[in-house]
Every structure is written in C-alpha cells, then in structure tokens.
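Batch job 17 of 40 flagged for manual review because the log was empty.
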Amino acid sequence: MKWMSVYLFGYLLLMAGVSIALWKFGIFDQMGPTWTLVSVLIALGLGIMISVSSSGRKSNIEIDSH
C-alpha cells in the first residue's frame, strides 16, 4: 500500500506539471472548461488504475486459530 501512495503522488505531480505546461501554451483556453475537466478526470482515473495495478503482489493471509 505504501508504494501505491508514492506512485500515485508521483503521477499527480506529473499531471500537475503537464497541466501547467498546457495552461502556459494556451491549450486550456482553446479547449474550454468542460473538456478540461473531462481530460483531468480521465488522467486521474488512469493514474489510480495504474498505481493500483502496480502496487505489488496480492496474497492471501491464512490465520490458524486453535
């Protein structure tokens, strides 16, 4: 779980940098607020899916109770 949080944090930093670059180039002005929000939601969804899928090996824990 720890690595998933670190990966997601790094992905959010990457998306913040890309967003700032797109804003500075004026791409967001051409897109409009609706499509900007849609693209941000898609990027966040992809980041969450990638961070969960690469969070490590899933295993079951067996507990003996005697």
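Reviewer: the log was empty due to a logging misconfiguration, but the result itself is present. Residues 27-54 form one domain. Unflagging and moving on to job 18.
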